[in-house]
Amino acid sequence: MVARAGPLYYLGEAPSQCTADLEKYLNRRTEVVDQYFSGCLGIDDYMARVESILYRYGFTGENSLAVCNMCRDEATNCLRAKVENIFGTLVLSFQSLGAVTTAGVIGLRAGLSHAPTVGPDGKERYVFFSFPHISVDEDGNAGPMARAARPGSCACGALISALTQIKQEGLGNVGAPDAHDPLDPEFTILKQRLATRMKDEGKTPGDVDLVSFTKLAERLITADLQRLISEAVKKDADYTVVTGVHIHSWTRDYNDEGPKLEYIWPANTYTVVDGVRVDIPVSSVPPLTPRQIKLLCKNEGGIPNITVAGTTNRRDGRH
């Protein structure tokens, strides 16, 4: 909400020129997302805080390899672009349906072998970004999403399909030998991993809706990532883990005048440097001022129209 993350401005104008109606509208849009994902932050605000954490613990775009584990959906491109703004070409893509990891230990080891070693200590450094995603439209409906030239869409389609099938089939097929279809490997792995996690947590299909299922997916993805890290990361390497849920809050009609807002619900942020783990809540890092956010977005190649809840967004949906 605006009170939590800073005032709303038309960029380039004084605060007094921001109309009360627009502020009320944008506050409502943030509150709609916050009711499902309490403590969510605007995507630019969130990434600025994460970059501050990384820098504090010695991770930069020059000495670290970023590992992006996100859904294949094109709607997640804006978050990947934020990571690329920091790390440039030093970004390893781990995309898969629903963001459930499928590359495995060997795949991760192969990617990590490309990390920079040019620093004075010759140490490898990695930053793992891992996020499932969901849409919460301007009316507070979880799932529906209007895409460019594609009304009636949704996010995350893979998680929605998995949840629908789990509700229809139940959890009795978990771990069955024929559970993974070679013609549809990613989706069947996704569904089985999520169903297994539900069973491990003692949840039944009737216990979950899309929001709680997406949060469950984040817990599963984080646990899987931590197991992969334990097998693939060199003992003398430093790394940071950054996880959460990426939330799209777009208007019902993609082409209308309403802003297409992007949020992050933070889950885990921790560094492991010289073998010592330090957990750093993103919310503990002070947000940037409106002036700083304005400069940040100009440097990224676009002047946004509005700032709300620490989020800077262009009305055309590009961030």
Q: Helices and strands, in N-to-C order? A: HEHEHEHEHEEEEHHHEEEHEE
> What's the N-to-C terminus distance?
20 Å
What percent of residues adopt helix (DSSP H or I)? 25-40%
* Low-confidence spans: 1-17, 301-319
Characterization of the model:
The chain has 319 residues and is an alpha/beta fold. The protein has one domain. The chain has nine helices and 13 strands. The chain is globular and about 50 Å long. The N terminus and C terminus are likely disordered.
In brief, what are we looking at here?
The chain is of the alpha/beta class.
Task: Give the arrangement of secondary structure elements.
Blueprint (H helix, E strand, L loop, with lengths): L1 H4 L3 E2 L9 H15 L6 E2 H14 L8 E6 L6 H11 L3 E3 L10 H9 L12 E7 L1 E3 L8 E4 L2 E5 L2 H13 L15 H16 L9 H23 L5 E12 L11 E13 L2 E4 L10 H10 L6 E3 L2 E3 L6
Parallel strand pairs: 3-4, 3-5, 5-9, 6-9
Antiparallel strand pairs: 1-12, 2-10, 7-8, 9-10, 10-11, 12-13
